[in-house]
Amino acid sequence: MAMLRGRRVVVVAGAGGVGKTTVSAALGLGLAAAGARVAVVTIDPARRLATALGIPGLGDEPHRVDPAVVEAAGMRMAGTLDALQLDPRATFDRLIAREAPDDAARDRILRNRVYRHLSGAAGAQEFMAVERLHELVDSGAYDVVVLDTPPARNALDFLDAPERMTRFVEGRGLRLLLGPRAGAGRTGWRALQAGGHMVMSVVERLTGAQLLTDISEFLQSFDGMYQGFSNRAAAVHDLLASDSTRFVVVTGPRPEPASEAVALWRRLADEHYPLGAVVVNRVHPAPGATGTPDGLAGLLRHAGAPDPEGLASRAAAALEAAQARAAADAHEVGALSHALSGPPLAIVPALAEDPVEVAGLAQVTRALGDDARDPGRDAGAAPPPDQARRQTT
Amino acid sequence: MPSPPLTDRRLVFVLGKGGVGKTTVAAALALGLADRGHRTLLIEVAAETRTAAVFGTAPPVDAPVELRPGLFALSVDAEQAMQEYLSIQLKVRPLVEMMSRSRAFHQVTQAAPGLAELVTLGKIWDLATAVRDGRPVWDRLVVDAPATGHGLALLQAAASMRDLAGSGPISDQADAIERVVRHPEATGVVVVAIPEELAVTEAAEAVALMRERGVPVACAVANAVRTSPFGPGDADVLRTVLGDPAAGPAERAAAGAALATVDGAAHDAREVRALGDGCALPVAMLPAVPDLAPGSGGVEHLSATLMADPALGGTGAS
Question: Cα separation of A348 and A329, whole Å?
């Protein structure tokens, strides 16, 4: 995908089950083959993908893919490809260690029960995916980081995650209510606290005092860290909204993920995020022929089939089913293209099975229009998005 | 200790990776249970509006709606559940209104990690234990849970809150919920996967995690499994035809499509085995159904297939 060349961040988003991880890996492979130093951050436990890439298993630390493995699959590897799997808790712990004013504050937070729950909570994944992205970009070790986004009810939850987290850590209203316990006692806020005390006494009846004490301690230990959190959230937002980033939306040729992709694309456009392309994954290609296989029974008899007529009719039914599937997929792609009105659509054909080896991944990479055997492009110059290789309709 | 068959457990959670067909499986199971004469409630968690695509009616958040005879549906929303919880706990209406209006209160609910999941699970528990005239209101409850990570958080919500809150009414309540959720006679989790590596791996990891935490996992469902109408010898003769220079393009295409069907079915059979081995669970199988729209008969067909599958019949592994 030419439009991704020279970018520092590629965010791959989409509904669950459409093959985001595979597309992320294939895009990373393509960019690395073309000469970039690439890191792919996956969320899902893609073990066989890791095995296929010749790395022992994906962990929090990047693993380098051996170029020989890629070259054995017929691709020239001009850059490097690293892969890692997001570990939200490890990332969160590192963030705390970096932002804490001193070791004592760090240890207090890492030990706090509210923090332990928070860092392992399902919602932390979205925030940490963005945080890990920030870390990798900041490290300077990579030209481009490809982020496979976490599954969420709302596929764009991760965009708001840094801001949500900052607000939570700040917890201004909560501090007021918790009063002296949370160390909020500035004059002028006392009137507000008076009303708050009543609310808090009711809350305490429900939760018990222990939980409130833990939350107070948690908020207290974050004292002096909001600025760091808030700066980081702003930096991440700026990076994601900048021209250094491209969003790629992945979908399948089915109505549900397609309508989700359209909603995603529109929201990204509305919020001025830099759009890359829409990838329609696993599209069934039309069988080569359109006629009816009238001569099949004869050929099967000749080949020694015990029941040539029966087998021929079952094979004809399989062909019909394949034709119907291809027609339905083509219809869905057309509808998607119409609904999106304009953005480049990259079509990845359905493979016999999901790529779990480099050769299969390379097929996806080529379908995405980044053939590594075509080294003629300068990594700095990216043509405008409307020049994508593939356009349907 | 042998656990009762899934169909005998009152509360069933349907869990799986996004996009594997949890809603389809939950709908098929709920329909099947209702057909057997159980008064069944299908519960959708938080604004996942997919049930409507199968039954033509979106489950409301306030009161259950009857989709088919004996089959009801309800959508559980965390905000609404929180309000109800407050009303029950505080009893005094002005106090409830004050709390719901309080920004500070909303901050506290956000600040306590997992509280949204807890009230959602609490509402489900409330429905599962509701009694009218000495009889349970619902014979069976089927929960269409959120995607794996969030679904696991939902199942774990009570245990998390009990550990976090220490003591107090919330902790006591969490304890009561936890006893129901972990009870293998009362509750069962169905793990759904499609026959693809990622979904199968994620299912196996989720099952391992649930076993570690004492959540009773009942069985796995492999959804959208491709099967083949071709016998063992067919592939060889089809390949011969494919290489026969006398074959025209249509004949070659038909032989190719037939061979692709054979390969697809073989691939899916391997992944279904991997699912059973990885989860150490019996696996029920559902075919890919092209049309699930209301009136298409798709969900009825899946329901009949699922209910007839021996994997639902009972298991010692839990």
Answer: 12
A353 lies within 8 A of chain B by CB: yes
- Identity of the residue numbered A202: V
- Reduced to 3 states, what is the DSSP secondary structure of residue B16? strand
- The minimum CA-CA distance between B4 and chain A, rounded to whole Å, is 31
- pTM as predicted: 0.84
Identify whether the C-beta of residue B61 lies closer than 8 Å to the C-beta of residue B75.
yes
Residues whose CB is less than 8 angstroms from the CB of residue B308 and which lie 6 or more positions away in sequence, other chains included? none
Cβ atoms within 10 Å of A331's Cβ, excluding its own: 11
Chain B hits for A87, CB-CB cut-off 8 Å, are: none
Choose the mutation target among A153, A181, A250 for the interface with B, i.e. most B CBs under 10 Å. Answer: A153
To the nearest whole Å, the CA of A48 is away from the closest chain B CA by 8
SS3 per residue for B221-248: EEEEECCCCCCCCHHHHHHHHHCCCCCC
Report the residue of chain B nearest A322, measured CA to CA.
Answer: B257
Closest chain B residue to the Cα of A213, Cα to Cα: B165
CATH class as words, domain A2-157+242-286+344-387: alpha beta
A327 and B CB contact within 8 Å: no
Q: Which residues of A touch B104 (CB under 8 A)?
A: 173-174, 176-177, 196, 199-200
Residue among A163, A154, A347 nearest A241 (CA): A163
Q: Of 3.40.50.720, 3.20.20.70, 3.40.50.300, 1.20.120.140, which CATH number belongs to B6-226+268-313?
A: 3.40.50.300
Residue of A nearest to B102 (CA): A199
More confident residue, B114 or B295: B295
What was the ipTM of the complex prediction? 0.83
- Each residue's pLDDT tens digit, A189-225: 444 455 566 666 777 777 777 777 777 787 777 777 7
- What average pLDDT does this structure show over B161-179? 83
pLDDT in tens, B45-73: 866 567 888 888 888 888 999 999 999 99
How many angstroms separate the CA of residue A3 from the nearest CA in chain B? 28
Pick A292's closest partner by Cβ from B199, B205, B250.
B250
Residues of chain A with pLDDT under 70: 44-49, 52, 120-123, 151-155, 171-200, 352-356, 370-393
Interval B223-260: pLDDT, tens: 999 999 999 889 999 999 999 999 999 999 999 999 99
